[in-house]
Automatic annotation (TrEMBL):
<dbReference type="InterPro" id="IPR002765">
    <property type="entry name" value="UPF0145_YbjQ-like"/>
</dbReference>
<comment type="similarity">
    <text>Belongs to the UPF0145 family.</text>
</comment>
<dbReference type="InterPro" id="IPR035439">
    <property type="entry name" value="UPF0145_dom_sf"/>
</dbReference>
<dbReference type="Pfam" id="PF01906">
    <property type="entry name" value="YbjQ_1"/>
</dbReference>
<protein>
    <recommendedName>
        <fullName>UPF0145 protein CUESP1_1317</fullName>
    </recommendedName>
</protein>
Amino acid sequence: MILVNTDYITGKELEMLGLVKGSTIQTKHIGRDITQGLKHIVGGELKAYNEMMDEARALATKRMVEEAEELGADAVVSIRYSSAAIMQGAAEVIVYGTAVKFKVEKNKK
């Protein structure tokens, strides 16, 4: 499955199949949330939250790809990600794009 954020794939003619998306809401356990909260005092990178967001993006992307595969897609174009805080320590990630199939070139005589 080819995934791109452009609306084209060089050298391919595309047939649009439709919108596909994937989403998840992720949180870290309370112990990690407390230790990350202490970073507000001393500053620094919130590594546990970075990991959480990486995991969330990967899971949302996997779900989008599964939806595209159900449509028989060869690729997803125009991919976009969005995230939002749901509550303290929890975030929603959504990814969406257009599922496409490669058009087969017909032989000309």
